[in-house]
Amino acid sequence: TATVALEDVEVDYRGRGRALGPVSLSIGEGEIVALVGPSGCGKSTALRLLAGLEPATRGQVRRAPGRGETSVVFQAPTLAPWMSAAANVALPLELSGTPKAEARARALEALERVGLAGAGASRPAQLSGGMAMRASLARALVTQPRLLMLDEPFAALDEITRRTLADDVLALWSQTRPAIVFVTHNVEEAAYMAERIVVLTRGPGRIAGEVRVEAPLP
Ligand code: ADP
Ligand code: ADP
């Protein structure tokens, strides 16, 4: 069953014509899907549609009801600079009404799961790029979303950190198995992490094809 699906979706940006589509794409429960394609073809737009951050101009975005939350992680960490890492991770829980003490405890657990056990008190500026991305992943996963969107999450990081983080994401995925859709320019990363690689054409992107990767995931 699909967690979220785009059905004949098109997006127009005012004054710029079509940005994406028509595209139909269904994301199954617990599936890991990579979205690749040339720059400007509409990958980020597709991700924002799937996340419900932006409306379709035409077509339908269907979401399975009662399937919990969607979390999004962007390439540039969006941690609040004046708050500690732990407070940043606790924030989505606090905003949805979780008592402060419980939110803090779950935030520390989430930081531990991404290998940042000792870094809860650090401000974002004190974290390396890789650590800030881990903190962003902890914040995205602390609410136990059923759908996780990653928009070029590792693009700004060095090769070794990228590889470590790809393994970290797969390890995190194996714990609660959210559906993951991620945008990447890195074909190696797509083939390593994804079960499906969806290729978009030059913009406005349509689906050019799809590759199924028969790889053992953790
Ligand atoms: P990709 O992620 O594949 O690089 P995007 O989804 O960012 O592509 O963009 C698709 C197209 O839509 C591009 O031509 C881009 O310039 C345009 N676009 C993206 N966001 C906006 C926006 N907010 N307003 C106007 N045009 C946009
Ligand atoms: P990068 O600088 O390439 O992004 P990392 O994020 O993996 O690399 O780590 C950079 C530095 O931060 C390393 O020196 C590492 O020892 C340190 N570091 C990594 N994780 C932690 C942690 N949980 N607590 C404290 N320091 C850490």
TrEMBL record:
Residues 4-218 form the ABC transporter domain. Keywords: ATP-binding, Nucleotide-binding, Transport. It holds the Pfam family ABC_tran. GO terms for molecular function: ATP binding; ATP hydrolysis activity. Signal peptide: none annotated. The keyword Zinc does not apply. Belongs to the ABC transporter superfamily. PANTHER family: ALIPHATIC SULFONATES IMPORT ATP-BINDING PROTEIN SSUB 2 (PTHR42788:SF19), TAURINE IMPORT ATP-BINDING PROTEIN-RELATED (PTHR42788). This is ABC transporter ATP-binding protein. The lineage of its organism: Bacteria, Pseudomonadati, Pseudomonadota, Alphaproteobacteria, Caulobacterales.
